[in-house]
Design goal:
mainly alpha; Farnesyl Diphosphate Synthase; two-stranded parallel sheet; 2 strands
């Protein structure tokens, strides 16, 4: 992997093109105190009290900014699940043998679908079962099924990521996006929206090609933002999370690390730009539930940026950083893969190129 030096990284790394307005949950303090106690009950850090608190506070920050419309028992149960999910995320990147990781994910996938599968379970199994038993009580059947499907798919995809890490294979950008899209939680995050916005989006609207493309583009925008602040978090570590910048460096080996960052932010900005185009078209004549669904996607994108600036997982006391936002793309012109108008051009990555097709309901 390429060596990145924080002193040489360009300002674009933490300058986020996002004209969407963020919100903050009014239940933030309640979420924080609740999830801290819950995480301690289940010892999410496996004996490490500081790690347990880190998982809890990271989850509280995500719930506060990423799903600010969730309320009451739903908000509390989702926040608890988010704390558990950071543990699962760390397992996928822990370097432990893939067979161990797959075995754990397979068991957890069953707990997600059937929380009472092992009623006497404690530890991480018990924590997951507790959160999902509560969610099953408070979500409608449709909200539940969409939410569960998204989380199950995420666990499967993280097994793929673990296998990739074990083999040491380096990906080009298309391969990276295809794998990271699922393993990074794009489907699982979008699956929150019905529950947190208290809607049941009709199947016809949910399955529209333009709506699916918009949901995927929104979630990939947030995921590529995660690559940006994770790059800083991982500096100096012997192993780090797979990221878009390494894939770009693999494709463009003559680029400096700073040039790879500019290219990567340009890819992200183009995806964000496409989401905004699709969003504008979808909202024309949208039903109330569809409009609220799009609001939920908006808040995940904007909230994810605020999450990055406030979550203890990403705060770096020895290397403070400033996160800024802008209403305009910062680097689209820096991506030289095509020479056409950045508002209409299709990126050269087949796994996402269909988002730029003429999509009709």
């Amino acid at each position: 992997m390429t060596t990145f030096d924080s002193a040489l990284l360009p300002a674009e790394l933490l300058t986020f093109y996002c004209p969407l307005v963020p919100e903050t949950s009014p239940e933030a303090d309640q979420l924080r105190s609740h999830v801290l106690a819950w995480a301690e009950t289940y010892d999410l850090g496996s004996g490490d009290a500081r790690l347990t608190a880190k998982y809890a506070l990271t989850a509280a920050a995500w719930s506060t900014h990423g799903t600010p419309h969730a309320r009451g028992e739903v908000a509390l149960a989702l926040c608890d699940y988010n704390a558990w999910a950071w543990v699962a995320n760390d397992l996928a990147t822990s370097g432990r043998p893939t067979c161990e990781i797959v075995a754990a994910f397979g068991r957890w996938e069953r707990v997600i679908r059937s929380p009472r599968s092992w009623p006497e379970a404690g530890g991480l199994d018990g924590a997951l079962a507790n959160a999902f038993s509560r969610l099953r009580t408070h979500l409608t059947p449709l909200q539940w099924e969409r939410f569960v499907a998204g989380q199950s798919q995420w666990l499967l995809a993280m097994s793929w990521e673990a296998a990739q890490r074990e083999t040491g294979v380096r990906d080009n950008v298309n391969d990276y996006l295809a794998q990271r899209f699922s393993a990074g939680g794009c489907y699982s995050a979008a699956a929150y929206v019905d529950a947190v916005e208290n809607i049941e989006l009709g199947e016809h609207d949910w399955a529209r090609p333009d709506v699916r493309a918009a949901a995927e583009a929104a979630m990939l925008t947030a995921l590529l933002d995660n690559d940006r602040y994770s790059l800083l978090k991982d500096l100096g570590k012997p192993t780090r999370s797979r990221n878009l910048f390494d894939a770009l460096q693999y494709e463009h080996p003559d680029d400096t690390p700073a040039e790879s960052v500019v290219r990567g932010v340009a890819v992200r900005d183009r995806v964000m730009d496409r989401y905004l185009q699709l969003r504008t078209d979808i909202l024309t004549g949208a039903s109330d539930d569809l409009a609220q669904y799009m609001t939920g996607l908006d808040l995940i994108i904007s909230g994810n940026i605020d999450f990055a600036a406030t979550a203890v997982r990403y705060l770096l006391p020895d290397s403070p950083h400033t996160v800024t936002t802008t209403d305009h793309p910062t680097t689209l012109s820096a991506d030289t893969d095509t020479d056409t108008d950045p508002d209409t051009r299709t990126p050269p990555y087949p796994t996402i190129a269909w988002w730029w097709d003429r999509l009709t309901p």
